[in-house]
Amino acid sequence: MKLLLVALKQTHRPGAPFRCCSTLRSSGSPSPSQDEVIVGSSPELVRALGSQVEVRPGFITEEEEAALLQELEPGLKKKRYEFDHWDDAIHGYRETERVRWGPVCEGILNRVRSLAFPQGSPLLGPVHVLDLDKAGYIKPHIDSVKFCGSTIAGLSLLSDSIMRLVKDNSPKEWLDLLLTRRSLYILRDQARYNFSHEILKDEESVFNGQRVPRQRRISVICRNLPD
Ligand code: OGA
Ligand code: MN
Description:
There is one protein chain. This protein is an alpha+beta fold. The chain has helices spanning 43-49, 62-77, 103-116, 189-193; strands at 5-7, 18-19, 38-40, 53-56, 90-98, 127-143, 151-157, 161-167, 174-179, 184-188, 195-199, 206-207, 210-211, 217-223. It is built from four helices and 14 strands. The strands form two sheets. Strands 1, 2, 3, 4, 5, 6, 7, 8, 9, 10, 11 and 14 form a twelve-stranded antiparallel beta sheet that branches. The longest helix is centred in the first third of the chain and has 16 residues, at 62-77. 37% of the residues are buried. Residues 141, 143, 197 line the site of manganese (II) ion.
């Protein structure tokens, strides 16, 4: 999966954020709504990206999270976290890919697929599973256009985290996404091709002025194939 990543050198620190003010959801759930989990360098940018960036807090239930973990933990536990490759985009991680899932997990993934991808869009067969240690993080990168298509959709298990998007060649334009535990995020089109994405390390994990402690985090990522 390392092949998918092209690390970019970036030392950007965002200034004061603007709140996103898009879709308000009127669910009775305690999860924050989408307008509370996306902030950006300007309201124009948040608006311009619109549906190309989505965060759905509480996309899976605690039971569904447990079902995913039960399926993934045995395989992950056999691997060691990798820390020492200085040139990697990802630090402090172990990973795997999975094609076949039990019925509960398959049901969850089908919900992700039908929401995230255009109907009939050919998907990358194996689902990518990335286990970040508490001390792990993902540096800014853009997924390889050779191997993945227009859309990236990821579930976050075990921990809240912050994903930062920074516009390629225009580092003053950025978005921070609060990926709450059990949320789903989707990056499409421009947000996927013209912005780097990264997962902040624990020490830097501050969303809209609010500290967001990072624990061990597992992401389950679906991608489509390039045209
Ligand atoms: C990746 C990546 C994000 C995540 O593996 O390319 O950006 O949610 N992962 O783990
Ligand atoms: Mn990526």
